[in-house]
Amino acid sequence: MANQAVFQKKVLEQLKETQLTVGQPKVLDYLKDHNGVSQKELALGCRIEAGSLTSILNRMEEKGMIERRIQNGNRRTFHIYLTPKGEELQKCVENAFLVLEEEVFKGISLEDREAFMRIFQDIYKNIMTME
C-alpha cells in the first residue's frame, strides 16, 4: 500500500496545475475506456468504496469534469460521462502516467519491462482468484 501511496503522490505532483485531487485521476483514466458506465461499475473498476466515489464524483461534477445521467428511466442508477473538460483532463492524466512510467522504468530494458508486466499480471490474477 505504501508503494501505491507514493505513486499516487507522484501522479498528483505531475498534475499539480490541473488541481485534481486524490481519486480523480483514476476515475478519469477509467472513464476513458468505459465512458457511460454505471456508478456501481465505476466503483468496482476503480476499486474505490461507493461512499468515497460519491464524494469524488460530486467534486468532479461541480468542476464540470463529468456528468451523471439517468438511463432507461431508472432514477436509482446513474451513468457517468466525461465532459469535454473531463476529456481534456484525462489526456493530462494519461500524459502524467506515461512520464512516470518512463521514470520508473529508466535503465530497464524493454525485455525486462515486458517480463515484469507479465509476472505482475500473473500475480494480480492469482490475488483476484484468492478466496
UniProtKB/TrEMBL annotation:
SMART domains per record: HTH_MARR
Keyword DNA-binding among UniProt keywords: yes
Keyword Transmembrane helix: no
UniProtKB keywords: DNA-binding, Transcription, Transcription regulation
InterPro entries hit by this protein: HTH_MarR-typ, WH-like_DNA-bd_sf, WH_DNA-bd_sf
Gene Ontology MF term list: DNA binding; DNA-binding transcription factor activity
Origin: domain of life: Bacteria
PROSITE patterns, per database record: HTH_MARR_2
Limits of the HTH marR-type domain: 1-125
This protein's name: MarR family transcriptional regulator
